[in-house]
From TrEMBL:
Similarity comment text for this entry: Belongs to the calcineurin regulatory subunit family. CHP subfamily.
Higher taxonomy: Eukaryota, Metazoa, Chordata, Craniata, Vertebrata
Region (Disordered): 57-84
GN (gene name): CHP2
GO CC term (a single one): nucleus
The protein's name in its UniProt record: Calcineurin B homologous protein 2 isoform X1
Pfam families in the record: EF-hand_7 (PF13499)
Biological process according to GO: protein transport
């Protein structure tokens, strides 16, 4: 019988996920996958939501179709006028930390995905994104935009999710008022977001079954069930400090304390 280490190496090779990442349950990795869109990692799938091609077939005001952006003016006032069209833009900027330029870019993206000009996105709208449609993790990514069983997400909710992937910079740490809520892109909030992608039943713990489900989605059918179960058992056992057979959020954070989460869960273009 092969050792657990051999199983781990095999899954690591197939999934394009470093073994140390598998060992510490980090759901986000930055290594480029070799298995096409059906095996893009979650970080790359969120990139596809924010910047990928829009669904085609919708005629946009001003003549464009689909995800095509309106032509930019070189005038300084043009950016301000675009920002003025975003509802509650100042409040969204304060909450998410996004620059005006990023919010405008994301608003155009939101409009491109909102094919019927409803003013919100449904699950069907996000399912039109090609990378999500063909990836086994697509439903988990889409679920994160619809917490508590909601059926629609407006623009503030859309950018609130993506704000978890905004890179942390010195300004975030140096100018923050301690009385204000913790930024959405803080290390702890990034970890909370990653944890809920594992915690399928939202009970505050990652069970062995949930870990196995996610790992199975990540590697597909190219490894045996025995290998997957071996890795799942090892991963849960190493993180489970209280011996209850599951991984709590505190145990999850401890297992990742040496990992650069700010790098693993950041999309550099989101500023």
């Amino acid at each position: 019988m092969k050792s657990r280490s051999a199983d781990l190496s095999r899954v690591s090779s197939i999934a394009g996920i470093p073994t140390q990442v598998l060992q510490t349950q980090c759901f986000f990795h930055v290594k480029q996958p070799s298995l096409g869109a059906s095996r893009l990692c979650p970080l790359q799938l969120f990139w596809a939501v924010a910047f990928g091609p829009g669904a085609t077939g919708r005629r946009r005001p001003g003549g464009g179709r689909g995800g095509r952006r309106p032509r930019r003016s070189s005038a300084m006032g043009s950016r301000s006028s675009h920002a003025a069209r975003i509802p509650d833009v100042d409040s969204i900027r304060r909450e998410t930390g996004f620059s005006q330029a990023s919010l405008i870019r994301l608003y155009h993206r939101f409009q491109a995905l909102d094919r019927n000009e409803k003013g919100y996105l449904s699950r069907v709208d996000l399912q039109q994104i090609g990378a999500l449609a063909v990836n086994p993790l697509g439903d988990r990514i889409i679920d994160s935009f619809f917490p508590d069983g909601s059926l629609r997400v407006d623009f503030p909710g859309f950018v609130r999710v993506l704000a978890h992937f905004r890179p942390v910079d010195d300004e975030d740490n140096g100018n923050r008022d301690p009385k204000e809520p913790e930024p959405l892109n803080s290390r702890m909030n990034k970890l909370r977001f990653a944890f809920q992608l594992y915690d399928l039943d939202r009970d505050g713990k990652i069970s062995r079954h949930e870990m196995l489900q996610v790992l199975r989605l990540m590697v597909g059918v190219q490894v045996t069930e025995e290998q997957l179960e071996s890795i799942t058992d090892r991963t849960v056992q190493e993180a489970d400090e209280d011996g209850d057979g599951a991984v709590s959020f505190l145990e999850f954070t401890k297992s990742l304390e040496k990992m650069n989460i700010e790098q693993k869960m950041s999309i550099r273009i989101l500023k």
